[in-house]
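Data availability (excerpt). The following record was deposited with the supplementary files.
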Amino acid sequence: MMGTRISFSRVDGKPTEGYLAKAGHDHAPGVVVIQEWWGLQDQIRGVCDRLALAGYDALAPDLYAGTVVPYHDHHAAEKELQSLNFADAAQNVVRGAMQYLKKSSPKVGITGFCMGGAVAMLAASSPEISCVAPFYGLPPEEYFDASKLAVPVQGHFSNTDDFVTPERANTFEAALQKAGVLHEIFRYDASHAFMNEQRAVHDRAAAELAWKRLLGFLKTHLS
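Predicted structure:
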């Protein structure tokens, strides 16, 4: 791992923690990376490291405050997910991470995976960010208002997902279209969580294509 665990301030001033991997130069653009429902796993830290190698300061806030759930334990993951206050996570922790990066980064984007995709979209109307890229995760429709979005969106979804179904991805795309939000939505013939190389559902070809698309999107909107 290239990065380090840091403390930073939530928007309400309380301390919180996360994993920060820094680019090799000052004033690099920043990316907030939001975890899956498993917690701040090595795989999410690895995403931060890869973004740092690509020239970004990447910060993954620890939304579970140190709890990491083993990949096989769906019951424990669901318990953590249900005990997470999503509004507080988006408005206080994630936005605090954006503000931390903005101290040295001219522009900041946000990406998230599974549960993190939902949190990223909930935080996407924060004034600190310049773009958002959810991976196979969206908030419930009643909590998402596309008309409040002022930044470009790049979405990545699975054609076989029963978490964010293809129909749900279509509805999301239609809402962005109707609101006039600049967007590109990609769909993959791969399983939910195909980006996670620590799990059996990992799909190398889909993951590499999505990563290339993400880097292109970040370069366009953050550099």
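Summary of structural features: The first helix runs from residue 42 to 53.
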